[in-house]
Design goal:
about 350 residues, 2 domains, alpha+beta, six-stranded antiparallel beta sheet
Length: about 350
C-alpha cells in the first residue's frame, strides 16, 4: 500500500467512525423517544432498554452505513480541496484515475464488510430485539389485539363481527342471522352495537331485531342468546417473523417452500436480491462522492449534495422495492434498478469530467 493510500485510508476511517457514532446515536435517540412510553408502561427498567438497543445496534449500523460512507468521503475530499491537498497531489503527478481507483477499491472492501456484517450480526440482532419487543414489552398489548370482519357459524346462528377482541371476549358491530332448523330459512336477523361472551351465552346491547316472516322490526336495550362460541378460539396473536429477521439461507428456503405451496413470493424474492444490492450501493456512493468533489469546491455545497443524493437514492430504492414486492417489476430488476441508474449517471459524468481534465492538461 502506498503512502498516499495509507493517508487517505486513515483519514477516512476516522471520519467514517465518527459519523457512524453520531448517526447511530441520533437513530437510537429517535427510536427511544418513540418507544419509551411503551417500555415504561410495561414496567421495565433501564437494563432491558439498554439490552434492546444494544442488540439492535448492528442493524442500525448496517442500515445507515451507505449514507454515512458517502458523507465521510465527501467531507474528506472537500476538506482536502479546502486545505489545498488536492492541488498538491495534482501538482505531484497524482492523476484523477489514481483517486478513482482508491475510492472504488476501498468502497468494494466496505461493501463486502457491510454484506457480511448485515447477514450475520444485523440479522441476529434484529431477531433478538424483535423477541424482546414482542415477548417482554408488547405482551401487555395482547389483550387489545383485535380481529376485523370475522364470520363464523354456531348452531343455528350465522355471525358477523365487525371487530372482535378475543382476549377480552368482546365484539362490536355484531350481526347475527338465526336460521330455521333445516338451515333453509331465516327466523330473524339481529344487529347489536356490542356483544360480551361468557359461558352462559352472548349478551348483546343496543339490539335491533328484524323478523322477515311477520314483517316485524323492533329494538330492545339488550338480549342474551344461547351462543357458546368462545372468541379465544379465533386468537391468532403471536410474534411475526419478518424478512428482515431472516438470513439469506432462511429467505431462500422460505421462497422455495412457499413457491411449492403456490404462494406469492415476490416480496421475499425482492428482499433476497435487495440484500446484495444494498451492500453494492457503497460502490455507487463512492462514485457519487467523487462526482460531487469534481463538481464543487465549497464544503457546504458538497455536504448538501451528499444529503440530497442520499434522500433521492433511498426514495428511489423504496419506490422500486415496492414495485417488486407488488409484482410490478421482476425482483432482481426492482432490487438493482436504483444502483444501476445512479451508477450509470455518476459513471457517465465522471468519465466525461476525467476526459475533459486530461484533455485540458494535454
Amino acid at each position: 500500500m502506498t503512502l498516499l493510500n495509507k493517508y487517505l485510508l486513515r483519514r477516512n476511517i476516522f471520519l467514517l467512525f465518527s459519523l457512524l457514532t453520531v448517526g447511530a446515536g441520533i437513530y437510537v435517540l429517535t427510536d427511544l423517544f418513540q418507544r419509551i412510553d411503551v417500555f415504561l408502561d410495561a414496567g421495565h427498567g433501564v437494563g432491558l432498554i439498554l439490552l434492546y438497543f444494544l442488540v439492535k445496534l448492528p442493524l442500525i449500523v448496517s442500515q445507515i452505513l451507505p449514507s454515512i460512507f458517502l458523507l465521510a468521503l465527501v467531507l474528506q475530499l472537500a476538506l482536502m480541496r479546502k486545505s489545498r491537498e488536492s492541488m498538491a497531489l495534482e501538482a505531484g503527478g497524482v492523476s484523477p484515475a489514481a483517486m478513482l481507483r482508491f475510492v472504488l477499491v476501498y468502497a468494494l472492501l466496505w461493501s463486502c464488510l457491510q454484506f457480511a456484517f448485515a447477514q450475520v450480526l444485523a440479522v441476529q440482532g434484529e431477531r433478538y430485539s424483535g423477541e424482546i419487543w414482542q415477548s417482554e414489552v408488547k405482551k401487555r398489548e395482547a389483550q387489545y389485539y383485535a380481529i376485523e370482519d370475522l364470520w363464523f357459524t354456531s348452531g343455528d346462528y350465522v355471525i358477523h363481527l365487525k371487530q372482535a377482541w378475543p382476549n377480552s371476549e368482546k365484539a362490536t358491530g355484531v350481526t347475527i342471522y338465526e336460521l330455521t332448523r333445516d338451515g333453509l330459512g331465516l327466523v330473524r336477523s339481529i344487529r347489536a352495537k356490542e356483544a360480551a361472551t361468557s359461558g352462559n351465552g352472548w349478551t348483546l346491547s343496543d339490539v335491533e331485531i328484524t323478523r322477515p316472516g311477520v314483517f316485524g322490526h323492533y329494538r330492545v336495550p339488550g338480549e342474551t342468546l344461547p351462543v357458546h362460541q368462545d372468541l379465544l378460539t379465533f386468537k391468532t396473536f403471536e410474534p411475526k417473523s419478518y424478512p428482515s429477521e431472516m438470513s439469506l439461507t432462511d429467505l431462500w428456503s422460505n421462497i422455495a417452500r412457499l413457491e411449492q405451496a403456490g404462494s406469492n413470493v415476490e416480496a421475499l424474492r425482492t428482499e433476497f436480491h435487495r440484500r446484495f444490492a444494498y451492500a453494492a450501493s457503497l460502490l455507487v456512493m463512492g462514485m457519487l462522492a467523487l462526482l460531487i468533489n469534481m463538481r464543487t469546491d465549497k464544503l457546504y455545497l458538497a455536504v448538501f449534495y451528499a444529503m440530497l443524493c442520499t434522500f433521492v437514492f433511498y426514495a428511489s430504492s423504496s419506490f422500486f422495492g415496492t414495485l417488486g414486492e407488488n409484482g410490478k417489476l421482476p425482483p432482481p430488476l426492482a432490487a438493482w434498478s436504483t444502483n444501476a441508474l445512479f451508477a450509470l449517471v455518476a459513471g457517465w459524468y465522471l468519465l466525461r469530467d476525467m476526459l475533459h481534465t486530461l484533455k485540458h492538461k494535454l
